[in-house]
Amino acid sequence: MSEEFKFQSEKAGDTLVIKTEGYINNVAGEKISRVFSDESNINVKNAVFDLEKSKVINSIGISYLLEVIELLSEKGGKIIFLNLDPTIDKTFKIMGLFQFSQTADSLDTALKDLT
Amino acid sequence: MEQNHLVENLSSQVQSFQEGFKKLTKADSLEDIMKNFWRLLKANFFISDIYLYHRNAPNSPWENLIPQQIVSQSDILLPKERASSVVDYDNHNYSAIITFSLTDASEIGIILGVKPDNTRLTDFEKITLQMLVQIFSGAYESFLNQKKEKTLIFGLNEKIMQLNNLIDAGIELSRFDNYNSLFEIALEKITSLTNASSGLITLSNDETGSVESTIVFPAGIPPENIINSGFRIESYFNFNKKNYRFILSEKETRKGVTNFNELDQLLLNAVSKQTQTAIENDYLLKQSLEKERIEKEMALAAAIQQRIIPEQLPKIEGYELSGINIPSREVGGDYYDCIDLGNGIYAFIIADVTGKGISAALLVNTLNAALYSYLEFNLPLNDMVDKLNKLIFNATPSDKFITFFIAVLDAKTGNLDAVNAGHNPVLLIRNDGTLEKIEAGGLGLGMLDLGLPFKGQRLTLNAGDRLFLYTDGIPEAMNINEEEYSDERMIDFFRNNSNQPSLEFITGMVNDVKSHVNGEPQSDDITCLILKKIN
What we know:
The complex is a heterodimer.
Chain A: E1 6-12, E2 15-21, H1 26-37, E3 46-53, H2 59-74, E4 79-82, H3 86-95, E5 102-104, H4 107-114
Parallel strand pairs in A: 2-3, 3-4, 4-5
Antiparallel strand pairs in A: 1-2
Helix pairs in contact in A: 1-2
Chain B: H1 2-26, H2 30-44, E1 50-55, E2 63-66, H3 74-77, E3 86-88, E4 96-101, E5 107-112, H4 123-174, H5 179-193, E6 196-205, E7 211-217, H6 223-227, E8 232-239, E9 242-253, E10 256-258, H7 262-308, E11 319-326, E12 332-342, E13 345-356, H8 357-376, H9 381-395, E14 402-410, E15 415-421, E16 426-429, E17 435-438, E18 441-442, E19 457-460, E20 466-470, H10 487-497, H11 502-517, E21 526-533
Parallel strand pairs in B: 15-18
Antiparallel strand pairs in B: 1-2, 1-5, 3-4, 4-5, 6-7, 6-9, 8-9, 9-10, 11-21, 12-13, 13-14, 14-15, 15-19, 16-17, 16-20, 20-21
Helix pairs in contact in B: 1-2, 1-4, 2-4, 4-5, 4-7, 5-7, 7-8, 8-9, 10-11
């Protein structure tokens, strides 16, 4: 099990790569959301979420991810998820996240797909 | 003419209105709609001072949304009470003051400043303003419907997800590797299922209440924060003198934390029940496997023992010989034999290995193999027993030993050499009824190896003499009151019945033991051997 939620974000052109660690809940969702509303990321169109170190997500966390998906979709961007735990993968399918996002095998593949 | 001009102007505005409506409906928050509406007003009226206000219900304070101001005109200009459809074009300082109600009973206020040329609004401008208000109302209703639809779909998906995760949790919990992973999975599942901020499981002693372990999710949160939370739900179960307590703390919403609802409690109870079932099933499976292992071991031990116990005893001229071995359910390490050494010489052996099961059976097997080897060398009996002692001592742990009795008979002369290594005394009743006990020897085989010689004993059997060899399964057989059959009763039976044919005596002895225990399970092997000199 992970400790308090942590994440790292790195910008690659108009893509924001986010690596999370821990339970994606309300607090985590707010932190993720704030990154995308930050002025310095106004030109971000795409996002890659690496959830390798996050094994648990609740529906509040999902609602924040849906907002990011909507935000970037309006900008004509794409969202790609990496390293999804089977439970999270199934949850995303049920919650309809993959209607507006996709998965990739690696960060390289994801970034190539976005260029 | 003026009327036609007005219609013409309005027609040319239709496309602009449609685009405005589209823009407004694209917004995903009230702030966004208001911002877009403000821009729409700015584009249609060349007025620099345009203010927009909002309030959730009549009589609640107006909130100045755009542009943000420190001093608000709303306190002076907008009505405090219900303000549906207030329209004022006559204020000297402003071109228009309008308020209107929205579909969700919230209200909007618009204040337009003076035009750059200080003129009043034209009819066209008033109609445009009214149209824009209508467009805003429609867009806001559409925004609310979209929001409702989104919430509804999200809520439906969430319920499906909860049901699906609950089913998956049951499957995952039933396949757990160890108890830590079981509790971690259970806790992760129920915390996310109920949108709890955190949760814990404590495992405590049911009798003393002392907590043996605590698992927290997310890790690192102090357990007392969860236990003392103002928003928490609990569930627990007891099994095998242990108490398993589940606590969830603070249900999350987008607006903060709140109390859990009835569904959350049901979900927690369900996951708690799934965990209990997994623990119970694991316990029953382990018990069943252990039972199976013991049964297999016992079957193997019984097979080994039965292979060693002679199927048929040799016939000795001038003597009668019978023996029996009734293994207990747990299979002890009893052994008896009569080995024909040729030339009218016979060896009689009875032994009892400490312990039960496969280890006892294997030790009997070792003794049997060694005995057959040593008997071929025709060693003095006490030397042979000494060698057996060394072998067993080196081959077994300190708590394992064998009580052992061996006697070698010259059938022609009736001479009997015997060594008793820690076994129950062998009983001999002479023809005249005198009882003798053959005890000379030493400690049980494998107990110690101090080099002390085993003592032997020589005696002669005469016609009518009866020798009785037995293991402690006979005198120690217990009834329901834990009363032993006893040495005294056994000796009495031997004394009173050993003149019967040897097979009848053995059967009678066993029946007498059975009548004493009166159906109680046999706790040890019953083994005995009788040798009678006929002539």
